[in-house]
Amino acid sequence: MDQAQALKELSRIMQDVLDDPSVALSPGTTAADVEGWDSMTNITFVVEVERQFGVKFKTAEIEEMHNVGDMLKMIAAKKS
Amino acid sequence: MLFNSYSFILLFVPITLGVYYAIGRAHRPASALWLIAASLFFYAWWRPFNVLLIAPSIAINYGIVRLLLRWGDRRPGASRAAFWGGILFNLGFLGYFKYSGFCLQMVHDITGASFVVRSIILPLGISFITFQKIALLVDVRAGRVTRVALRDYALFVLFFPQLIAGPIVHYRELMPQFAALDGLPRAENFAVGLTLFFTGLFKKVIFADPIAALIAPAWLQAAGGGHPAFFQAWAACLGYMLQLYFDFSGYSDMAIGLARLFGIKLPPNFNSPLKATNIIDYWARWHMTLTRFLTAYIFTPLTLSLTRKRAAQGLPIMGGRGTTLRAFGVLLAYPTMVTMGLAGVWHGAGYQFLVFGVLHGIALVTNHAWRLRRPHWWPAKSRAAHFAGWALTFLFVICAEIFFRAASVSAGIGILRGMAGLSGLTLPMALLPHAQALGLHATGVWESGTDFVQLWGWIGAGLFVVLALPNTLELLAAYDPALGFKVRPAGHTRVLRKLAWAPSFAWATGLSAVTAAGLLSLGRLSDFLYWHF
Could you tell me which residues come within 8 angstroms of residue B14 by beta carbon, excluding any fewer than 6 positions away? Predict the structure, then answer.
């Protein structure tokens, strides 16, 4: 899966989690940019991403992801 | 040694600071050792015995940190044992001093068995110190901290501005700052540091202490089983909220200011909590470093593991409006109640603190449920909705705070009854005829109308400062007053632009007045509320 495809997939997961089809993520998006993306939403999002991409993040890694781009990099690193 | 005492402000700080910068340029490690020695002196001032308690605890924790660093991933079994041993040691240390009396009391209440409860003197700041030590163990184990020297560890635990009551700071945000210092005094650090310190002192001695004295009789009455009437109960409730805010945010300003004098930035602890328009937001603004700690080390790991477990079983997890009741209960309500219950008893050993934590837990869960399921027609972004949210949040917070202050749960309920008007009305003599004309029956009179006016005058002034003015960190925002502090979009008001801190004649005059007022009001010493936790 290339970056663009992965990004599209992340957007779709976030749309489901927030129940808001208008959400569009870009690599620079942070939690503060998306209404409703609080700490609880973040946990659900991370677990959904883990499930759909078949990866698992460590707690420290979750904290180190500051935007969507960081998450894409982390997924790519785990997939390779 | 109290922050609000002449010996601290006029002797301890100038001497510590002077020596620190005098030796700092030539010999940085020596200046760190000096800071450790000064902090130990500061801590020993009340009870030298405290040092004998904290020193072994530092040594043992440091030993465990070294073991974790050495074993790391190479010996996972031993590493895990050392980690949990360390956590248990710290919780046991805290538990013995803080909770053994309360636990025996609970056993007594449940089984009727009686014990001789020896009173144990709580070592100062133990709850805060313990949290920071636990956080470091977690960070080392998670690989977030990879190098720890004994001198750095001691400085991290003992650094006196944050030693007694926070802000609760992480090793990884404090120590790199010390490492990067060049030992040179900087005008900006002194300007910002002194502004924060004396503004904090002003909050403490001009607002918190006088209000505390004015509302003390009503609290005493409630503690003795009495029933404060309507106006006394409301004044007790509002006044205590203001006292607690000015006391603790004043302390935090002073702590952040003191650290800045040494060139160190601490994280923000308050961001105008009483302006919050919902309870989730309130906790993002009140005692922010505690919220951060509880979220990172209790709520998130618990919720994450529960969510993963449910996802692995193919059960529904949280998902916007479609969230099932069960998922909400297991993944949000349960971890929130656990976290807030612990937050309650962390403040103090007693049922009323548990009630306080549980009330806040229920409010947070309700807030989350509302976010998920609020009706579509609700005008969430309108001014009216914001105002309604603020009023509800404010009312809830001041009522829950009653249990924080009350001597017991029943004393707290006594205040609530009074606020609901169930204990009658007392009025100043001068108002009595007017009240009778309105058909109100007063059950008592205030001995002096001046007391009434003075009390409500302070409360009105306090509410104005808290609700209408920018906070200290916002005023100083251009000078980076606290780690990662940013003014929220809603905080950029015209008032802030007008009042923002600047090295100007107006600010120099204002701060001189604030400093003089603070220093001249130190006569009657009172300690900080959070120094008891």
Answer: none
Which value does ipTM take for this structure? Answer: 0.84
Q: What is the pLDDT of residues B103-119, one digit of tens each?
A: 777 777 777 666 555 55
Quick: pLDDT tens for A13-37.
Answer: 998 888 778 888 888 888 878 877 8
- Smallest Cβ distance to B303: which of A20, A43, A58? A43
Number of neighbouring beta carbons within 10 Å of residue B77 = 8
Instruction: Give the predicted TM-score (pTM) of the model.
Output: 0.87
Which residues in chain B have Cβ-Cβ distances shorter than 8 Å to A36? Answer: 371
Tell me how far apart the alpha carbons of residues B284 and B281 are, in angstroms, rounded to a whole number.
Answer: 5
Give the residue from B501, B477, B479 showing the smallest Cα distance to B491. Answer: B477
Whether residue A40 and residue B321 make contact (CB cut-off 8 A), yes or no, is no
Nearest-Cα distance to chain B for A5, in Å, is 22
Note the pLDDT tens digit of each residue in B469-525: 999 999 999 999 999 888 887 777 888 888 889 889 999 999 999 999 998 888 666
Question: B203-235 burial string, b = 16+ CB within 10 Å, else e?
Answer: bbbbbbbbbbebbeebbebbbeebbbbbbbbbb
Distance separating alpha carbons of residues B214 and B212, to the nearest angstrom: 6
Residue B154 has pLDDT above 60, yes or no: yes
Query: Residue B442: pLDDT above 70?
Result: no
Instruction: Return phi, psi of residue A72, to 5°.
Output: -60, -45
CB–CB contact B319 A17 (8 Å):
yes
| Nearest residue of A to residue B140, measured between CA atoms | A60
Residues of chain B in Cβ contact (below 8 Å) with chain A: 142-144, 280, 295-296, 299-301, 303-304, 307-308, 311, 317-322, 331-332, 368, 371
In this prediction, residue B283 carries a pLDDT of 92
**Could you tell me how far CA A77 lies from the centroid of its own chain?**
14
